Amino acid sequence: MNTLELLRADRVLTVVRAPEISDARDLCAALVAGGIHVVELTYTTPDLPRHLERAASTAAETGAVVGAGTVQTADQATQAINAGAQFLVTPGQGLEAAAIADAARAAGIPVVLGAFTPSEVMTALALGSTAVKIFPAHHLGPKYFKDLNGPFPGVPLIPSGGVNATNAHDFLAAGALAVSAGTDVVSPADVAAANWSSITTKAKTFCAAL
């Protein structure tokens, strides 16, 4: 099952934003135990390639599909791919968006470019984005996804930013492919303290809300 099919089945991925990760393997295992298989480790965490390597090298063990998020340069894309990232996600579309998309295509992995406006969705699709991340989604809410489905029927859209267990189902009902779960599931404090049981419980609660 490829990443897009897994997202369509699970309807959720989790975005990890933490100042430190005590063990990326245990983090991924905790999330999978809670029902979330697609894990996005981000460049806001120092020394991300090392954590990606740890997560990717143990993916067969944990069952996680691990990618890199907040990718803003072609160099970061290459680093992440070399560390074993199975997909790339950008927060938006800077000057290097095309180069990031090209790097993902060359490596044979999906890329999810960030967008907010219809024009940016069109640009992301033109650059070969596998799916399009709408960020920050909470500003316009689920109705915006219904509106986007008019000109972009069938385009895989993923809301990110402000998505929680209360509103996640509404985004899916409005046509989103899947939703991004953030600190609602993976709090920086839990990650730093290696509080894996708490993360598993929160993941289960989030998945149940879907």
From TrEMBL:
Segments traversing the membrane: none
Keyword Amino-acid biosynthesis set for record: no
Annotated metabolic or biological route of this protein: Carbohydrate acid metabolism
Gene3D superfamilies (UniProt xref): Aldolase class I (3.20.20.70)
Alphabetic keyword roster: Carbohydrate metabolism, Lyase
Family of this protein: Belongs to the KHG/KDPG aldolase family.
Protein name: Bifunctional 4-hydroxy-2-oxoglutarate aldolase/2-dehydro-3-deoxy-phosphogluconate aldolase
